[in-house]
GntR family transcriptional regulator (Streptomyces albidoflavus), 252 residues
Amino acid sequence: MGTTQLESVPEPKYWHLRTVLSEALDSEFAVGQVLPNERDLAARFGVARATLRQALEQLELEGRLQRRRGVGTTVAPPRVGVAVGSAELGWPGAPGDAWQAEESDRATAPAAVAELLGIAKDEPVHIVRRTRVTGGQPVAADLVHIPASSVPDLTAIDAPAGPARARAVLRELRRMEFEGQDRSVELGSARADDARALDRLPGAPVLVVTTRYFGAGGTAAVSLATYRADTCRLTFGADGVEIHHTPERQAS
């Protein structure tokens, strides 16, 4: 077979630099070590700073590097193992749930979430904010959107705000009969509120897991869980979605 047009395209400079940098990370730098500034790195490898930034962004996306506020670009630790499967097959807040409820308020859901819930775009819902910490570091932030019809007795609860209110909303949700769920995963960029919760910079790569919980013949709640893409690796199995520890890194 002849060479295709794509096969004849030379490797982009930033991609070649990404490979060289990856090898340097393995041989010259330790986990948590701060990289030299962009000017010094660009001079060392003889590339333009724009090319260097592309390579660094690619390595950040792959979880090799992470940008830290007030510190700079550091070598990322191995990915953290976090189970996202059997313990979460029931309602949010069920026994064994690894998430920590933090706050709940009423607000209008994003249009896409309202469509998944089957409600009007201007209909307010209960939004429960949750976080997940593994190994002492935040790995995910979650927003659970719950329409009023899923928690009809919530008005009788004396829990005005904070974690107590969030837990109360989830307790009421669990009164419904759980009928199942479905999930989807996509790559995204951290919004400002997610970035604060995850100790990342806005725009950092994240994995967004959208889960629909079914009850009473319809969609009872929708969860938007944002995972640090530099920390988590998702695999799929019979029990749902799991994130496994990556003990070793290999240079490409």
Q: What stands out?
A: The chain has two domains: 11-73, 78-233. Residues 11-73 form a domain with the Arc Repressor Mutant, subunit A fold (CATH 1.10.10.10). The two ends are 27 Å apart (CA to CA).
